[in-house]
Amino acid sequence: MSGKSYRDRNLYKRGNVIWLKVRVNGKPIRQSLCTGDWAEARRRRDEALRQASRLRLFETERLTWQQAVVGYIEYAQSHDDQTGTAHVKASTLKRYKVSFRQLDPLFSPYYVDQLTKTKLLELAEKRRKARGITNATLRRDLTAASQVLEWVSHFKEGIIEANPLRNVDLKRIYRESRDPIVLPISGDIDTMVNRCPANFGRSVRLLQHTGMREEECFDLEWWQVDLARRTINLTKTKTNRPRIVPLNDEAVGTLLGTPLYEDKRRSYVFWHHDGKRYANVASRFAVLRNSAGVSFRAHDLRHWFAVEYLKRGGSIYDLQKILGHRHLSTTEIYLEHLTPDEQHRAKSAPSIYAALTGPSPSGSDGAQNVAHVEVVSGKKKRRSKSPKLEKDAAD
């Protein structure tokens, strides 16, 4: 047997193919290693023996990628015993599920223990070449995959020793090129608002004058609004960090003109039908945008607010807090839209964020002041101190 030595124990050759012979839990197992090269056979033998030590030899006690995804989703939707909230935010899990569907054709043929760092990056590159996927999309998809692998490493003992993507710098490998910011024209925003159903149009105005993210706006409930303090208390944010957003005159005026559904102070600010939250906001916005003949996205209103805030003399540091950016460098992209004088003023302007979001005025307990709002229900409408509003606040 040319080429065979003591190092080749557990191996034997049948024809041109080398086989492995081993006992697991007293059971003899023979398995083709699908190679005639002794060096490669040794490598495959050693890997098989490592799997055997974890009771996962040849289809035994192994977890497929699809099984891992199902298990992770069940975990993500379950609730933490201490906080009572889901382990993963619904909006985050929704995005992960999109990635799982995209990755399934590539990952489903594999067991989790086969998805090494090299294999994962190889499959990602294969997807990029086949479908022209952007770096941003690959990062999102591999981040979702990493969450599944992290769950397996913590809750499925013996399957994998560690998440192979845990220490991989996806931001460095898949650098994301940021699309240039194109600011909406005020006239186009007006056209969009006029084209929208009443309450949806009001949401567009609030996005324009607060810089909130789309989901933050449509998750907003009346108990979070304090008109006495002229603030909104955001508890559901992209970064999971609550923040307070100050309200300017235009934002206050928008809320004063927004009807409250059936006097339920925990009702959504922007509702339709029977007080329901707007769903599929991005696609709804796109339909209305196309109908109005404008091209900006809902997120572009956040850019519009940021640039206008700085142009009016606001501090770049206050803007960072209002927008909820972790890093100042993210906020500083808006400086490109200012003149040199405006840039200098934005960097040197004194901070007034604390004053804008501070304690309630004297005589107010800071409660959610919604007495101004006209109450609307499916059966009747009660008048309040504010002018008459449209009953149709829906779509």
Would you identify the CATH H-level superfamily of the largest domain? Intergrase catalytic core
How would you spell out the order of helices and strands? EEEHHHHHHHHHEEEHEEEHHHHHHEE
CATH hierarchy, class of the largest domain:
Mainly Alpha
Briefly note the CATH topology name of the largest domain.
hpI Integrase, Chain A
Helical residue percent band = 40-55%
Tally of DSSP β-strands: 11
Radius of gyration: 29 Å
Main sheet characteristics: 3 strands, antiparallel
Domain count = 3
Given the C-alpha coordinates, what overall shape results?
A: elongated
The assigned structural class equals: mainly alpha
Tell me the strand order in the biggest sheet.
1-2-3
Mean pLDDT: 84
CA distance, first residue to last residue: 80 Å
Unreliable runs = 56-60, 362-368, 378-395
Q: Work out the helix count.
A: 16
Architecture per CATH nomenclature, i.e. the level-2 architecture of the largest domain: Orthogonal Bundle
* Strand residues, percent: 5-15%
